[in-house]
């Protein structure tokens, strides 16, 4: 009953957002690309890759799409990848490790531990850089909607709804709508709603950590404990962001005005 109520709230929030903001710009379908026609799939060379159909998967671990090369554009072309493995899944929708110049865009990722997980394990987050995650709907993922690590990355125009539910680490687990790590990120015009912790964990809408010179601009965050957080010694500015139903709207960083 609790999850049903939350789902109903999500639909109301999403509907209200669409009425207020419109459906956003239309995206032309990418056709000059390497078509991904089966999952799981590993991208092993630079280029443009795309989906031409929806996929339903049942992944307990691994990733639906692994990007194992730099200089890649992955266009989901408005399609969805939905994972039905449940709350204990360890799988990612899209995963990349220590890669540069990636773009992931224009589709829906449902039911993963993390919807998009771009990781950087180098010292100082200097290996992964110049990546863009845009126009992604990350819905009903279990731990993080989007996780983007590295240098000078951009996270923009995404919709992240209902992040909650992993059972991997016991009863006390934090959850993150969007998590951004590393120098000089830009977090722009995202919608984040309904992020729920477990037990004594913490729920974050947009969480920036190990960030220098970050910028969070024109985001909307609703129904979460902590709205936009520059964690620890992170530095950066936030401007023209809106929150609703948020216990602590803003934390850390520098208020550049227009935030509510």
What number of structural domains do the residues give? 1
**Terminal Cα span:** 32 Å
Global structural class: mainly beta
Strand content: over 45%
> What is the strand tally?
23
Order of helices and strands: HEEEEEEEEEEEEEEEEEEEEEEE
Spatial shape: globular
Helix content range of the residues, please?
Answer: under 10%
Radius of gyration: 17 Å
Question: In this structure, how is the largest beta sheet organized?
Answer: 23 strands, parallel
Put simply, the count of helices is 1
Q: What's the quaternary structure here? A: single chain
Low-confidence stretches: 1-25
**For the residues shown, what is the average pLDDT?**
91
Task: Describe this protein's structure.
By secondary structure, the chain is mainly beta. The protein has one domain. Helices cover 8% and strands 47% of the residues. It contains one helix and 23 strands. The chain has a 23-stranded parallel β-sheet that branches.
Q: What's the SSE blueprint?
A:
Blueprint: H1 2-21, E1 34-36, E2 41-43, E3 47-51, E4 55-57, E5 63-67, E6 72-75, E7 80-83, E8 92-97, E9 102-110, E10 114-119, E11 132-139, E12 144-149, E13 154-156, E14 159-163, E15 175-181, E16 186-188, E17 191-195, E18 203-209, E19 214-217, E20 220-230, E21 236-239, E22 242-251, E23 254-255
Parallel strand pairs: 1-3, 2-5, 3-6, 4-7, 5-8, 6-9, 7-9, 8-10, 9-11, 10-12, 11-13, 11-14, 12-15, 13-16, 14-17, 15-18, 16-19, 17-20, 18-20, 19-21, 20-22, 21-23
Q: Which features does this protein show?
A:
260 residues, 23-stranded parallel β-sheet, mainly beta
